[in-house]
Design goal:
alpha/beta
Length: 364
């Protein structure tokens, strides 16, 4: 799209009813637009938005502050609201794809009415327009009804499935999870607030159901000292103070093009291993850690499933929730305490082709 036309569309949205009174969302919209137009194809980092748009300090930690993710989600919803109302006929469509911060501009595809729908002089028959609107409402109602029925059937099937005997987990999956889930106290799943982490928790719930166990969860910001003493913990996302980790450490990059972004530091590199792993642009992929080690209190354990971005976290959880991938981990560790590093490609905003690239014993 021409730059002038794109910027005009941004101002049209910013002054609309949908964004009226929300200076922070307007500021975010204009910032994302400038980045998309000035640096097409370049990834936009959460740290970059936090410090340059929302005035967060240089020590901003996305694990503890979800402002960028929350505000971007709000802006995405406001854009949908705008194009569903006053912007329905705008020539330019502005979107923020899910799982990304890069804004896109698209020319609207329009269709002119057919010859039979035109009156002399080129006017469109009002009755045809009304019929189209009525048909649209009918189709929308039918669609919503269908979705409701499917959802009701799904919930019914899930409840019936939970009541009946759950199918046996695969051998490697059982071998990996048998120890942690055999504890008399239920492990507490602690997660960061994000879409990727939420999807990962749902994946864990599926595995817990195979073992007929419930999955208690708690946002990472609400984790208390008492929780650390009385629960085994599963961290979905980088843990505070790198709890449960000895050889790998999550920290913000101190310099370079990825300054402020999360990276993984290798405190005790084996021969041939890198000293740190920092994710590159989205097509390159992300890194994650899978670690099982001792907890804060005696006889407690901590399982860390975390990536430098939510996609890496998703990949770590997927890895231990699928028999095909967890098999290699079990073979290398014997399900004893360990720390492992994975790499995943990012495809369509999610993890793909995740590989195990390093395994360390936890007692080094």
């Amino acid at each position: 799209m021409p730059r002038e036309e794109s910027l005009s569309q941004i101002e049209r949205i910013a002054s609309s009813q949908a964004l009226r009174g929300s200076e922070s969302l307007c500021k975010l919209l204009r910032y994302l637009a400038r980045q998309a137009l000035d640096n097409p194809g370049a990834p936009i980092r959460e740290y970059q938005i936090a410090t340059q748009v929302f005035g967060r300090p240089t020590e901003f930690d996305p694990r503890l502050d979800s402002t960028v993710r929350v505000q971007t989600g709000r802006l995405r919803s406001k854009l949908s609201e705008y194009y569903g109302n006053s912007g329905a006929s705008d020539p330019v469509v502005v979107e923020i794809p899910k799982g990304a911060y890069h804004l896109s501009f698209q020319a609207r595809q329009t269709e002119s009415p057919g010859p039979s729908e035109r009156l002399p002089g080129g006017a469109v028959d009002d009755s045809v327009a009304r019929s189209r609107r009525q048909l649209g409402w009918v189709l929308a109602f039918a669609g919503m009804t269908g979705v409701a029925l499917i959802l009701a059937f799904f919930l019914f099937a899930v409840s019936r499935g939970r009541d009946n005997a759950a199918p046996d987990p695969e051998d490697s999956l059982r071998s990996f999870w048998a120890g942690p889930l055999s504890s008399p106290s239920r492990p507490l799943v602690v997660f960061a607030a994000g879409v990727g982490e939420t999807l990962a928790v749902h994946e864990l719930d599926t595995v817990f159901a195979l073992f007929q166990r419930a999955i208690p969860v708690r946002p990472i910001a609400m984790l208390s000292p008492a929780d650390r003493e009385t629960h085994d913990l599963i961290f979905v996302g980088p843990p505070p103070d790198n709890a449960g980790l000895r050889g790998f450490r999550f920290q913000a990059a101190a310099s370079g093009p990825e300054k402020g972004e999360m990276e993984i530091v290798n405190l005790f590199p084996l021969p041939g291993e890198a000293e740190r792993w920092t994710p590159g642009p989205s097509p390159a992929g992300d890194y994650g850690v899978i670690a099982l080690g001792p907890g804060t209190a005696a006889n407690r354990w901590i399982l860390v499933l975390a990536g430098t971005t939510p996609v890496g976290t998703q990949a770590a959880v997927d890895f231990v929730c699928r028999d095909g991938t967890v098999r290699g981990l079990v073979e290398k560790t014997g399900r004893s305490r360990f720390e492992a590093l994975i790499h995943t490609r990012i495809q369509d905003g999610g993890p793909a082709d995740t590989q195990l690239i390093a395994v360390h014993p936890a007692d080094r």
